[in-house]
């Protein structure tokens, strides 16, 4: 083992001066002995800076875990040095011998000192030496290529169609050793290997004329296969896997609803009447359950932690399986690598082959992991991705350049996806797609039994964690509630009753799902304290015949006034704990009041005791509703085919009215629709669903469409982003321009100016300004299924 810096200097100097393979091998043994020594001692080094050379090491005092990681990097660095020196010995370029003398002199600078300081000095000198060896290696290889006559074939092309090629070659010259994936693809430090890589693996340089272009043949698309409904969940349960409590929870949920999924699939199959459905290859990567993301959820499954995400993911897996698609499931980065074909290394290079999936469902954690491991392939294939996003992502936050310029940048957005690639738990953001989940559906006999057995003076509190009971002022309204009802809680605890729960509350502890359901079937009231927001539990309670009582937020909660929403990529203002229940269900099943108004609260509790309600579940949260919705998305949404820009000029002669205009006023309505011949334009939802109207100043298109009993539909924006839309709405444009603005198309009455949208990624139903009336593409919707228009199936 190397004991002193002097021993190390001597051995390295001999190695550099003689270039004898045997001596290199001996020094290699010494190097790895040094690595073993440093790792055993837990030396103190920090990680490299992002901009440093791959060989740069900083000597700082850090914690043990980080130190060990950096020491392993040093060992890897020394191995790279030995490989470079071996390459130099084979080249045998005598003109570079004097340069090697410079390297040995670096070793003389190591002076006797303390052990840790000595190791630090050795590491820094290794870093300097490695960089110099790399320079000599590249110089020697360039000289050899001149002698071999191959340099002429590998001149750096200056092709205007590939403007980034020269800079990418320069980058490769400096950094190709930064990731082993480059060597995996045949990069060896020569310009020829750089150009081959940049033209055949990446796409920054033109194809090389002297290369055999048949080596990378054009891949033919796979033949289409028909999807067939699957009524057995056995194979799905095997794919979900084991080893995490979160996975066990999801499997229990899949089993418990299996019969309902099967019967719903048969009904939808009958409705579709054997219509052709493409069978898709689908990867589901649950990023938040990976160890690499921290997986904070699994340990809390049995301790009252949030289950809403796992409920939704279990239902997503089931709906994709039952619809008959080929589903793969990943809950680790290693599995992700295997499914995608990620080359070995640090993730800088594209995938080894074409993307083996038609669709990838993931979350923000998984999206970040794919960015790290897929390299440029993510940019190429991101149109296939669907992001499960509970609270939604608005276009202003999704557009990286726009978000950066206009202060919409957050911890989550800025991915430059199409807005409808984000899929939410509730239909609160029309700019996104509505994924949803399901609640158990009761038959008529079960509903009657629940109504008969309801205990009118029994209430259950929404809140499994003690922290949810810390609401300021809760004692006041809980005392009022206690006068009229027996209050039950399901708060998790291990040994002692949580002090946050008042003594008059009967706490059952955390209940298994079937026991919780039995409790809800007896209770008359399910009451929320204001948090958590928008979970599945209120819908399950309403489905079991409870009335859901929730607080009204005044002012509404948003990123402007509430910590929970700060950093989330949405400007949405939440008016209550569960806006969907308030807006789409409402009385008598859902009652939203000001909990600070004790008189109103007391009167409401008295009313709840008196009234009877039936169990209710919106169609879109049944198994059939979710199957119908996701089937429509999979078969119709396409973000990979270039969207043909709408060019009104070519069609204007066929438009009615003078001057020609494609819009006509609907009978008994203030909205406009497309005049005729809607089948001439490819669109989903179909153009026949379009209802055009103008918002009020300071009103978003979300609100404007809702006020007319409609839904804002961003997919139809391209048909209203034309100057004729302004004239159809009697807006007189003295000026017409276009810009990147998430509020456009819009009209400024003050200046009589009309603004068109310049970037389709910024078409947005969300957003408002007192300066503008916005042009809003609304649509109708199916009763109980707001995600789909009447003609969308």
Automatic annotation (TrEMBL):
Molecular function as annotated in GO: alpha-1,6-mannosylglycoprotein 6-beta-N-acetylglucosaminyltransferase activity
UniProt KW keywords: Glycoprotein, Glycosyltransferase, Golgi apparatus, Membrane, Signal-anchor, Transferase, Transmembrane, Transmembrane helix
Pfam family, one: Glyco_transf_18
Family according to the record: Belongs to the glycosyltransferase 18 family.
Membrane-traversing stretches: 21-41
Subcellular location: Golgi apparatus membrane
Tree of life domain: Eukaryota
Protein's name according to its UniProt entry: alpha-1,6-mannosyl-glycoprotein 6-beta-N-acetylglucosaminyltransferase
Main localization of the protein described in the UniProt heading: Golgi
Listed GO biological process terms: protein N-linked glycosylation
Membrane topology, from the record: Single-pass type II membrane protein
Pathway given in the UniProt record: Protein modification; protein glycosylation
InterPro entries tied to this protein: GT18_cat, MGAT5_Glycosyltransferase
E.C. designation(s): 2.4.1.155
Residue intervals of the Glycosyltransferase family 18 catalytic domain: 181-778
